[in-house]
Amino acid sequence: MNGSLGDRDVLIVVDPQCDFCPGGALAVPQGDVIVPVVNTLARRFAHVILTQDWHPAGHASFAGAHPGHRPFETIEMAYGPQTLWPDHCVQGSTGAAFHPGIDIPQVELIVRKGYRAAIDSYSAFRENDRKTPTGLAGYLRERGFERVTVCGLATDFCVFFSAIDAVAAGFATAVALDASRAIDIDGSLERSLAAMRAAGVALLA
Q1: Catalytic site includes residue 21
Q2: Which of 44, 48, 55, 192 is the most exposed place for a label (fewest CB within 10 A)?
Q3: Among residues 19, 89, 158, 165, which one is catalytic?
Q4: Distance CA 81, CA 76 (A)
Protein backbone atom coordinates (compact mmCIF):
# COMPACT_ATOMS: atom_id res chain seq x y z
CA MET A 1 0.00 0.00 0.00
CA ASN A 2 1.45 3.33 -1.05
CA GLY A 3 0.46 6.91 -0.46
CA SER A 4 -1.99 8.45 1.98
CA LEU A 5 -5.71 7.75 1.97
CA GLY A 6 -8.68 10.07 2.10
CA ASP A 7 -12.01 10.61 3.76
CA ARG A 8 -13.68 7.56 2.22
CA ASP A 9 -11.12 5.17 3.73
CA VAL A 10 -10.97 3.83 7.27
CA LEU A 11 -8.56 1.48 9.03
CA ILE A 12 -10.00 -0.96 11.58
CA VAL A 13 -7.35 -2.33 13.95
CA VAL A 14 -8.77 -5.45 15.58
CA ASP A 15 -8.00 -6.27 19.21
CA PRO A 16 -4.35 -5.17 19.60
CA GLN A 17 -4.57 -6.14 23.28
CA CYS A 18 -2.09 -7.47 25.83
CA ASP A 19 -3.85 -10.82 26.29
CA PHE A 20 -3.40 -11.57 22.57
CA CYS A 21 0.34 -10.88 22.68
CA PRO A 22 3.14 -13.11 24.03
CA GLY A 23 2.74 -13.50 27.78
CA GLY A 24 -1.00 -12.90 27.57
CA ALA A 25 -3.80 -15.30 28.44
CA LEU A 26 -4.61 -16.08 24.78
CA ALA A 27 -1.36 -15.23 23.07
CA VAL A 28 -1.31 -15.18 19.28
CA PRO A 29 2.12 -16.34 18.06
CA GLN A 30 4.19 -13.21 17.31
CA GLY A 31 1.16 -11.06 18.12
CA ASP A 32 3.39 -8.25 19.36
CA VAL A 33 5.39 -8.19 16.11
CA ILE A 34 2.53 -6.39 14.36
CA VAL A 35 2.55 -3.39 16.71
CA PRO A 36 5.14 -1.24 14.84
CA VAL A 37 3.67 -2.38 11.51
CA VAL A 38 0.19 -1.30 12.62
CA ASN A 39 1.53 2.06 13.81
CA THR A 40 3.21 2.67 10.45
CA LEU A 41 0.13 1.61 8.50
CA ALA A 42 -2.13 3.83 10.60
CA ARG A 43 -0.12 6.92 9.68
CA ARG A 44 -1.49 6.60 6.15
CA PHE A 45 -5.09 6.85 7.36
CA ALA A 46 -6.88 9.99 8.47
CA HIS A 47 -9.52 7.77 10.09
CA VAL A 48 -8.80 4.82 12.40
CA ILE A 49 -11.06 2.64 14.56
CA LEU A 50 -9.91 0.15 17.20
CA THR A 51 -11.85 -2.85 18.46
CA GLN A 52 -11.42 -4.16 21.98
CA ASP A 53 -12.43 -7.58 23.31
CA TRP A 54 -14.23 -6.75 26.56
CA HIS A 55 -15.56 -9.82 28.37
CA PRO A 56 -17.25 -9.96 31.76
CA ALA A 57 -15.75 -12.51 34.16
CA GLY A 58 -17.15 -15.98 33.56
CA HIS A 59 -18.06 -15.25 29.95
CA ALA A 60 -19.83 -18.09 28.11
CA SER A 61 -16.93 -18.41 25.65
CA PHE A 62 -14.48 -19.24 28.44
CA ALA A 63 -13.63 -22.93 28.85
CA GLY A 64 -13.75 -22.40 32.61
CA ALA A 65 -17.48 -21.69 32.34
CA HIS A 66 -18.06 -25.21 30.99
CA PRO A 67 -16.90 -27.94 33.41
CA GLY A 68 -15.39 -30.91 31.63
CA HIS A 69 -14.31 -28.87 28.61
CA ARG A 70 -10.89 -27.54 27.70
CA PRO A 71 -9.71 -24.44 25.83
CA PHE A 72 -9.89 -24.70 22.03
CA GLU A 73 -12.67 -27.31 22.09
CA THR A 74 -15.79 -26.43 20.11
CA ILE A 75 -19.22 -26.78 21.70
CA GLU A 76 -22.73 -26.03 20.54
CA MET A 77 -24.26 -22.90 22.03
CA ALA A 78 -27.80 -21.61 21.48
CA TYR A 79 -26.47 -19.52 18.58
CA GLY A 80 -24.30 -22.24 17.01
CA PRO A 81 -20.75 -23.60 17.30
CA GLN A 82 -18.47 -21.79 19.74
CA THR A 83 -14.75 -22.31 20.28
CA LEU A 84 -13.92 -22.26 23.98
CA TRP A 85 -11.05 -20.00 25.03
CA PRO A 86 -8.92 -19.46 28.11
CA ASP A 87 -10.24 -16.60 30.24
CA HIS A 88 -9.01 -13.48 28.45
CA CYS A 89 -9.63 -9.75 28.00
CA VAL A 90 -11.73 -9.53 31.16
CA GLN A 91 -13.19 -6.07 31.56
CA GLY A 92 -10.80 -3.71 33.34
CA SER A 93 -7.93 -6.22 33.47
CA THR A 94 -4.36 -5.59 32.38
CA GLY A 95 -4.82 -8.19 29.67
CA ALA A 96 -7.76 -6.31 28.19
CA ALA A 97 -5.69 -3.14 27.80
CA PHE A 98 -4.26 -2.18 24.43
CA HIS A 99 -0.63 -3.14 23.87
CA PRO A 100 1.45 -0.27 25.28
CA GLY A 101 3.31 0.08 22.00
CA ILE A 102 0.19 1.02 20.05
CA ASP A 103 0.67 4.66 19.03
CA ILE A 104 -2.28 5.88 16.96
CA PRO A 105 -3.34 9.27 18.35
CA GLN A 106 -5.92 9.85 15.61
CA VAL A 107 -8.16 6.94 16.69
CA GLU A 108 -11.75 8.20 16.40
CA LEU A 109 -13.73 5.26 17.82
CA ILE A 110 -13.18 2.22 20.04
CA VAL A 111 -15.70 -0.58 19.48
CA ARG A 112 -15.95 -2.92 22.47
CA LYS A 113 -17.23 -6.40 21.75
CA GLY A 114 -17.95 -9.61 23.63
CA TYR A 115 -19.40 -7.72 26.57
CA ARG A 116 -22.66 -9.68 26.64
CA ALA A 117 -22.11 -12.58 29.03
CA ALA A 118 -23.97 -15.22 27.01
CA ILE A 119 -22.61 -14.63 23.49
CA ASP A 120 -19.18 -14.14 22.00
CA SER A 121 -18.38 -11.53 19.38
CA TYR A 122 -15.48 -11.99 16.97
CA SER A 123 -16.58 -9.48 14.35
CA ALA A 124 -16.47 -5.73 14.71
CA PHE A 125 -19.85 -5.72 12.94
CA ARG A 126 -21.88 -8.64 14.32
CA GLU A 127 -21.97 -10.93 17.31
CA ASN A 128 -21.50 -14.67 16.96
CA ASP A 129 -25.18 -15.35 16.38
CA ARG A 130 -24.33 -13.65 13.04
CA LYS A 131 -27.45 -11.50 13.48
CA THR A 132 -26.99 -9.00 16.31
CA PRO A 133 -25.28 -5.86 14.96
CA THR A 134 -22.71 -3.81 16.84
CA GLY A 135 -23.84 -0.65 15.04
CA LEU A 136 -20.48 -0.20 13.32
CA ALA A 137 -21.86 -0.57 9.78
CA GLY A 138 -24.37 2.20 10.39
CA TYR A 139 -21.67 4.40 11.89
CA LEU A 140 -19.42 3.90 8.86
CA ARG A 141 -22.25 4.65 6.43
CA GLU A 142 -23.27 7.80 8.26
CA ARG A 143 -19.67 8.98 8.23
CA GLY A 144 -19.52 8.38 4.46
CA PHE A 145 -16.83 5.71 4.45
CA GLU A 146 -16.67 3.44 1.41
CA ARG A 147 -13.44 1.45 1.84
CA VAL A 148 -12.36 -0.53 4.89
CA THR A 149 -8.90 -1.94 5.62
CA VAL A 150 -8.74 -4.45 8.47
CA CYS A 151 -5.70 -5.66 10.42
CA GLY A 152 -4.87 -6.98 13.87
CA LEU A 153 -5.40 -10.12 15.92
CA ALA A 154 -6.17 -12.74 15.01
CA THR A 155 -6.23 -13.14 11.22
CA ASP A 156 -8.30 -16.32 11.29
CA PHE A 157 -10.89 -15.23 13.85
CA CYS A 158 -11.70 -11.60 14.66
CA VAL A 159 -9.96 -10.10 11.62
CA PHE A 160 -11.57 -12.71 9.36
CA PHE A 161 -15.11 -12.24 10.64
CA SER A 162 -14.75 -8.45 10.60
CA ALA A 163 -13.59 -8.50 6.97
CA ILE A 164 -16.35 -10.86 5.85
CA ASP A 165 -18.97 -8.72 7.55
CA ALA A 166 -17.53 -5.50 6.11
CA VAL A 167 -18.01 -6.93 2.61
CA ALA A 168 -21.54 -8.08 3.49
CA ALA A 169 -22.29 -4.54 4.68
CA GLY A 170 -21.31 -3.18 1.27
CA PHE A 171 -17.81 -1.84 1.89
CA ALA A 172 -14.83 -2.46 -0.37
CA THR A 173 -12.64 -4.42 2.02
CA ALA A 174 -8.96 -5.29 2.32
CA VAL A 175 -6.95 -7.12 4.99
CA ALA A 176 -3.37 -6.06 5.67
CA LEU A 177 -1.75 -9.45 6.33
CA ASP A 178 1.62 -8.01 7.35
CA ALA A 179 -0.16 -6.13 10.16
CA SER A 180 -2.03 -9.26 11.32
CA ARG A 181 -1.16 -12.62 12.91
CA ALA A 182 -3.15 -15.85 13.23
CA ILE A 183 -3.83 -18.43 15.93
CA ASP A 184 -4.16 -21.15 13.25
CA ILE A 185 -6.13 -23.91 14.98
CA ASP A 186 -6.33 -27.06 12.80
CA GLY A 187 -5.84 -25.17 9.55
CA SER A 188 -8.09 -22.21 10.44
CA LEU A 189 -5.72 -19.71 8.82
CA GLU A 190 -5.82 -21.28 5.36
CA ARG A 191 -9.59 -21.74 5.56
CA SER A 192 -10.10 -18.11 6.53
CA LEU A 193 -7.81 -16.82 3.77
CA ALA A 194 -9.68 -18.91 1.19
CA ALA A 195 -13.05 -17.68 2.47
CA MET A 196 -11.92 -14.06 2.38
CA ARG A 197 -10.68 -14.42 -1.20
CA ALA A 198 -13.99 -16.02 -2.19
CA ALA A 199 -15.91 -13.15 -0.58
CA GLY A 200 -13.95 -10.54 -2.52
CA VAL A 201 -11.67 -9.33 0.27
CA ALA A 202 -8.36 -8.00 -1.07
CA LEU A 203 -5.49 -9.67 0.80
CA LEU A 204 -2.57 -7.28 1.02
CA ALA A 205 0.87 -8.76 1.71
Answers
A1: no
A2: 44
A3: 158
A4: 5
